[in-house]
Amino acid sequence: MGETLFIRLGSQIENKIHWLIKTNGQEDIIASGELPNANALSQLTEKSTARDVVVFVPASDIAIKRLKVPGSSQRAIRLAAPYMMEETLAQDVEQLCFAFSDTKQDEQGNNCFVAALERKQLELWLQWLANAGIFTKSIIPDALALPLDSQSSTAVMLGEQVLIRLGAWQVMSFEANAWPIIAQHFSARAEDSARVENSALAENENTILAYSSLPQVPAEIKVEYLPEELPLAILANHHSTKFNLLQGEFQVKEKRSATKTNWLWVAGIAGVALVLNFTLKGVELYRLSDQQSVIEAQIIANYKAAFPQTKRVKVSTVRSQLRQKLAEVGNSDESIGFLSLLVKLEPALASVPEIKPQTLKFDGKRHEVRMQTIAKDYQYFEKLKVALEKVGLTVNLGAQNNQGEQISGSFSITDTAAKGRS
Description:
- It is a single chain.
- With 422 residues, the protein is an alpha+beta fold.
- It is built from 11 helices and 17 strands.
- The protein has helices spanning 45-49, 74-84, 119-131, 179-194, 199-205, 231-238, 258-306, 315-329, 332-351, 379-390, 416-421, and strands at 3-8, 17-23, 29-35, 52-57, 63-67, 96-100, 112-118, 139-141, 153-158, 161-167, 170-175, 207-210, 222-225, 356-363, 368-375, 394-403, 406-414.
- The protein has a 5-stranded mixed β-sheet. Strands 11-10-9-12-13 form a 5-stranded mixed β-sheet.
- The protein starts with a strand and ends with a helix.
């Protein structure tokens, strides 16, 4: 369950600031106090960081009006409303900002509910908050946060001002010494109600439910005092977020909490790490793929070197082609003998790279390989014969024939040990 910090600003920088903290959904007050002026708002900075902030401002600085504006759409009505109010406002329309309520229509047929205030005043309040590092997305006229009673007006004394709520969109805010003027207003309201020949209604129109002590009230105004409460608590417990002065160009986006921001940083870092990991894996996969291509090319080259008459070779078919070649030289037992003989041939051939085998034929019964080779000099044939005999093979060197720049020669190679085991 979260908490909310409520702040009531004054009209001028030297006015006192009232503040209060309470748990959302409950009426218990956690803390409250006063600041001497707006320059001391920084004392609330730390209190605002982990809480929602709702700001009240003096309704005396705001013209809150109900209008009957011709128009078929809310957009058209709201565009026309400022100019319908122009004659009743002290400033030019261009110097004011306007905030509208979503209320559709009241019993008197009013279809536009608007609050107008000087742009500079709203900017001044926002500047005070910004200087203190306090973020809010809701600024509400204080008198509109008073409890709404269908039969009576409600009032509270906040600082040096009296706040009165006459109806859903009717409020008053004035200094205590202005009671004589206010009394005339209440008398006029009572007379208007009396015309409808309803004495109870007339009496209620002249009654105020007071949630705090009030300065000396004229006798013609009836006041019913309720159990006294902290004035700002009254506003905090009955305010509505449905109306907000921060509209249009002043509307603010919700500020992310520190926890959300930290999680976003963590998510961002994790995202970067994930992308980096995929990149490294991709590079590694590319490198392995490149190595695989090199190895496949070597396999194909070795196969073609062993079987030069082969024209097309695929890595996927090399194994089956080798099996086919083995089948051509004998049965499975013979294949095993041929393979064991090849194992001994390989290091000897590798030691004399000048000898190039051309053909190999295996006689399974005699465990003999007949190998036709070529070289550039006679001495290499003798060198290979010595190398073969060192690994335990019996070698008969056949005739060598000069074929231009190359010399061909044949070998008959027998594995005496394998022949004995058979």
